[in-house]
Amino acid sequence: MELRPDRLERQLAGEPLRPVYLVAGGEPLIVQECADAIRARAREEGYGEREVLDAEGSFDWNALTMGVASLSLFATRRLFDLRLPTGKPGKDGSEAIQAYCNNPPPDTVLLITAQDWSKSHAGKWSEAIARAGHVLPVWPVKPHELLEWLGKRLRQRGLVATPAAVAMLAERVEGNLLAAAQEIDKLALLSPGAQLDEDAMDRFVADSARFDVFKLVEAALAGDASRASRMLRALKAEGEQVPGLLPMLAMEVLRLGQLARVQADGGNVMNAMRDARIWESKQALYRRAIDRHPAARWEVFVGEAGRIDRIAKGRESGDAWLALERLLVTMAEPKARRLLAS
Predict the structure, then answer these.
(1) Which PANTHER family does the record cross-reference, listed alphabetically (predicted)?
(2) Are residues 200 and 220 in the same domain?
């Protein structure tokens, strides 16, 4: 059956573990916390062995079939932790998952997590999961839902906040749930059981929505061209200089080009991201970015970053701010690639 993430803990407490769970969506924090709750319940129920499988690129789905069929020498109960970043298992994967769901082995739980989900991802494989276990689609928290989400999270951490204080927190984190969770955890640590008004929130909470180069690059990678442009204008108004912004941008563009090349060559992008020390909470963002452009275009972006650096240092004519904005917009929106030729 389909299950809402906010009802997962109650469901886990009220029934034995199901043979299979699918947790999928574009909110990494919620996906991670739901998966962690299932893993914790599995440990409580004696699932002492856990096997992690990364299903991407040239993944051999026989690894799942053979792993499930094999006998364990160390534990009678096993958890298979299957990472499916794209949320699309393909024909072989769909058949392997359906076979598991149609005849789930005893003392085995299959947990599938994906960092992307929409109605187009669903199919016979997810329907089979829904019959045998639970499907938890994790939809992005909408702006009008953010205040309720923040208020609930504050209460879960033993904090009470006025509506104005919650609204201030929402403004500071700008929809970034991971930043919000970090700020709330910090509040609970610094002021346990506090009743927070607007002034108290202002004192305790850092301005997580400040316009810095990290957020600028994230906006471009997320495909939000308008936000990237707005943030760049704010940075310019604050007195930042293009040469100070470029190193971080160039590093990310180069890293994305390398990941895109791994994907184009059929390699394991998940392993490549781990090797590049990209946080798990950021991996979905990087994957969407490399899916947006082919590897050759990321190489063009690397060259453009170098050209902007030369402009900013007076070695080439042009407007460095305008060129930088065009690069960011093109990274965010493939249809805007003609801007780089302007």
Answers:
(1) DNA POLYMERASE III SUBUNIT DELTA
(2) no
Sign of torsion over alpha carbons 130, 118, 112, 263: positive
Are 125 and 23 within one domain?
yes
Domain count, the chain: 3
Kindly report the CATH number assigned to the domain that includes residue 13.
Answer: 3.40.50.300
Looking at 174, 204, 234, the residue that finishes a domain is 204
Query: Which domain does 165 fall in, by range?
Result: 143-204
Tens-binned pLDDT, residue by residue, of the chain (342 aa): 788 888 999 999 999 999 999 999 988 889 999 999 999 999 999 988 888 888 877 788 888 888 777 765 555 788 999 999 888 898 999 999 999 999 888 889 999 999 888 888 889 999 999 999 999 999 888 877 899 999 999 999 999 999 999 998 888 787 788 888 888 988 888 788 888 888 888 877 765 555 567 788 888 998 989 889 988 988 888 788 898 888 888 888 999 999 999 999 888 888 888 888 777 767 888 888 999 999 999 999 999 999 999 999 889 999 999 999 999 999 998 887 676 754
Which of helix, strand or coil describes residue 52?
A: strand
